[in-house]
Amino acid sequence: NAGVTQTPKFQVLKTGQSMTLQCAQDMNHNSMYWYRQDPGMGLRLIYYSASEGTTDKGEVPNGYNVSRLNKREFSLRLESAAPSQTSVYFCASSDWGSTDTQYFGPGTRLTVL
Amino acid sequence: EDKVVQSPLSLVVHEGDTVTLNCSYEVTNFRSLLWYKQEKKAPTFLFMLTSSGIEKKSGRLSSILDKKELSSILNITATQTGDSAIYLCAVEAGTYKYIFGTGTRLKVLA
Known about the structure:
The structure holds two protein chains of two kinds.
Chain A: E1 4-7, E2 10-13, E3 19-25, E4 31-38, E5 42-49, E6 56-57, E7 64-68, E8 74-78, E9 87-94, E10 103-104, E11 108-112
Parallel strand pairs in A: 2-11
Antiparallel strand pairs in A: 1-3, 3-8, 4-5, 4-9, 5-6, 7-8, 9-10, 9-11
Chain B: E1 3-7, E2 10-14, E3 19-26, E4 32-38, E5 43-49, E6 55-58, E7 61-66, E8 71-76, E9 85-92, E10 98-100, E11 104-109
Parallel strand pairs in B: 2-11
Antiparallel strand pairs in B: 1-3, 3-8, 4-5, 4-9, 6-7, 7-8, 9-10, 9-11
């Protein structure tokens, strides 16, 4: 059981470039989440998917798009990266929605120059 | 605006000490409070506290929710160097709405 996996672990982009962060979970969870973690800011929810086929905005969705490809996979896309998107990105999943424990992936450290 | 505040921001103790970490919150729709431990990478779940479960314990760690004071504490007794981490508090303030505090950085010296 790998739990929640994320790729890549590290990425450096130039302003304006695009990229997709991948997340997969093997726990058969219904809900998946994308967070960003910045120094002094705590974790902030970007987007979530309550169940396969649905996605919704979280606290800080601007500049991002998501795709719930299937029950296992939830990707985060930056269409035109900006330095303000330099952060550590965590994917998480939970079994039955927001009242359930979330399990986090190892994170992706993204730097936008 | 919903917010979660943790204190202290950082703490240095010696092995064997007992520590108490604090989390206070102001949210309009409280559902649960969660504690996580974050070492080098992903946060790992410690406890979830709700109105029906205001005290939890696991080994040397315990946590209490005070709904009257809108706060929670996380206690760690007989600390070990492996307890060194950032401890995060989060409040579920609505369906799929999680407000995280900035964390308390704990360092335990041998």
